[in-house]
Amino acid sequence: MNAVRPHRHCLYHGIALALLLPATAWSQQATEPVPANTSTGQAAAPAGEGPIDLQTVQVSGVRAALARSTELKRDASTVQDSISALELGRFPDDNVADSLSHITGVSITRTAGGEGQKVSVRGLGPEYTLTTFNNRILATDGAGRDFAYDVLPSDVISGADVVKGAQAALTEGAIGGLINLRSASPFDNKGQHAIVRAEGDHNQLSELNGRKFSATYSNTFADDTMGLLIGAVYAERKDRTDIAGNDGGWTRNPDPADPSWGGNAWGGNIDPNGNGELDPEEYGLIAPGQFRVGTVQEDKKRKAFSGKFEWRPNDDVRIVVDGLKTRLDSPQVSYQQSFYPLFAPGRWSDINVQNGIVTGFTMDNPDPEQRMNPELLNQTEHRVVDTDLFGINGSWKVNDSLTMTGDVYRSTSERKSGGQDTYVVLRMNQPNVTRIDLTRDAVPNVTTTFDDGRDLSTGLANGQFNDSDFNTHYMELRGDNIKDEITGGTVGGKLYVGQWGIDSLNFGMTRTERSKRRDLVNNTLNGGADYYSVDNAINVGDLGGVLDRTLSLPNFMNKVGSTFPRSFLGFDVPNYLSSLEAYNGNPRPDGTVYDFANAAPQWNPLESYRVEEKTNAFYVQADLSGDRWSADVGVRVVSTQTRAEAWDAKIIGITENGAFNYTARYADPTPVQQDGSYRYILPSGNFTWRFTDELLLRLGAAKTMARPPVDKLAPTNTTASVSWGEFTQIYGGNVDLKPYTAKQGDVSLEWYFAEQSIANMAVFYKRISNQITTSWEPGQDIGVPGYLFNVMRPINGDYAKVHGLEAGLQHFWENGLGFRAQYTRNWSKSFVAGEERPLEGIAPSVYSLGLMYEKGPWSISTTADYSDGFVTATNVLGAGYNEQADEITWLTASISYEINDMFSVSLQGQNLLDEAQTYSINGNPLLSQGYYRYGRSFTLGFSARF
User: Fold this and answer.
1) What's the Cα-to-Cα distance from 6 to each of 1, 9, 12, 845, rounded to whole Å?
2) 853 in Cβ contact with 816 (< 8 Å)
3) C-alpha angle 544/550/552, rounded to 5°?
4) Rounded Cα distance, 442 and 516, in Å
5) The pTM is what?
6) pLDDT band with cut points at 50, 70 and 90 for residue 540
7) What does the DSSP assignment read for 467-518?
């Protein structure tokens, strides 16, 4: 570790020198700043500056924003697409990820409430994408590196560039695309300006409302040599997501034709004819294992403060100090019903089988452990994320031939949720008869009739169940504390050459230090989650005051036609935990007495880690040009050292508490520390040929890389699935995982056939090496007597190939009408140990179609964003049985009216088709893996400009 410190000190001293040396020039008379030079790429310019002069374009309205984006694309040195703000402090969508989804080749995944959260470029998942803010890497609160866009209000963004090509001067770390978010500059529009905006939103599904207030102030002063821009945002939003899914996966019998699959039916192979044998017609038979249905409610509060101070004392010097501080406070509570109809001999009757799938059965066994025992689940999640980014950068034109730049920044993200999340399951304990039939509608038909005549569906809806109808069961108390810290610095220069065909030479070095730590606090390692379950369960009536409300939600699952219980019972979880603690000292059936301390959460070393990463990068890039062409060629050398620390604890015994209920006993944890390093040479080249001023051809070739997710570097492991009888050891990662690397090429033809109009087509190819996938090793001896485990671990695969095409068309007519269309098609495959597999996370096709009208005070637009189904996990039930996200179309529309130069109103609609995101096995609707419905939402806004 000491060996790399001198590099850090030299770099930071060099940055300080680059920022301080211009002091001798500040006494000169101030003049207008020189427009930024476009040939160096974004990395060589001060943070926040785009590749063209921001002063030349005044952005206001959809049409002007698209014109700005078109100009950015036209003047870029490589293949790039951009979006721009409609006006100061107002982005095209309320969420940055939603706006990015309108760009060619970009698709997004959504979090609770339907808000865009993760971004994929050219079909490659978020792990292949790098997000920066003003060319600085953003810290994240998740386990990996992919940025969660829901922590960042769109109001602090003035634009975003999606760079799909590569240049030596650009930050490494992206194979799909580099997304650079840009904040506004007070010099974008000199003078004093301010905007205040208020919004209210309503969701038709949940019938819940939200509100947002934002304000931005910008001013230049001291003869326009200084500028200040500050902004603030506060938002509150209540949302709801209705969910269903196969909790724990489907069960499938062994199939002699598939040696990779040994079956996963916990209670024995699925045996419809009851002869105790695995007959040929039962090979590979699939049946429901577990499923649930419910709703997630979120009370999201978000606030952000941003600021930027710029000093431009003369043509040669520019100093920028900027910062961003956000807090996302989004607690969630989920109400769900869980059903565990796992097969066991004698448990099912009246079995129906169609096309290798058990589609229906009756559960009428009177044995308490064989009958269906419906479970109610209340889950809370505490998520408070603080994200900061502060930095200072500057540029100094030393002379007519040399310009120096420097940047230093610090980015942090912190989430403190340790032990604050709850997952409480109460189990019904009455004899009943249950019938389950699969449907093609996300949720099976479920009818449960109790021996006393009550029905589960009507009983929940009409309040016929009370505390005494339930026993305590599973109770997980968990949450993790995550802190991500990034310190970075860059010093670079641009040297004018003017001979040998070279216009200029760009050079520089960067230093990035990242430290990420996770401390998981839960009660699974100590067996506390099962402390009050099975034989040691307590009747909830003996605790009292636990069930405190019945929930019959408006519009719940009203687009799902299945028959199942649609009401829920809410738990008073704090009172439940207090009552369990008050129950201390009562005799326990296992011969001990109850002690809540044995169920309390504690630090879990097996899933906690520390990862430190130190990276030095050096680049040189030559810019060239001729009468009709321009080009750049360069190389970036990246050297990274990684240290990862985690803990291990061997299982020394397993206690069976009942059917599908076990407790593992662990030895004391021992630390595991691993060191790793790698170095890559990343060459790149770009060439642009201008047939005319309107028609140009781009060519690009490069070697790129994307680092493994941070958590995949830590040697963590978990055997938590032992608790419910699935003996699987999951390794989180190891420090020797290599980054993804890709050799890629791009060809793009762009025709700017009219003002604000473009037709473009591009083809691309990527050969990805070391892609990270998951190995599945069934039946392994990990040293636990009497048990074999399935082992999962992240590995570097052999390689993957991705190629595709992009097409776009945008045009506006003089009458105010316009349209925008983008389409991306991907073909991909990967190889692991010689076996061909789908490449996970790649959507085969993505398109976006938008229609616009803008004339006078009116602006109207609608956009449909479509993402094809794509594989999310391979071989989940054996070879060829892949989990996939199904296709979805997201339709938005907006209308705004400028009352006068000061005031405007707007109305925006999201998810107007009321689409749900669904997951399945191989696209088969009978084999549903997940269902998430967000509902339509509408936002009414009012803006005042000063």
Assistant:
1) 10, 5, 10, 48
2) yes
3) 165
4) 38
5) 0.87
6) very high
7) GGGEEEEEEEEE-EEEEEEEEEEEEEEEEEEEETTEEEEEEEEEEEEEEEEE
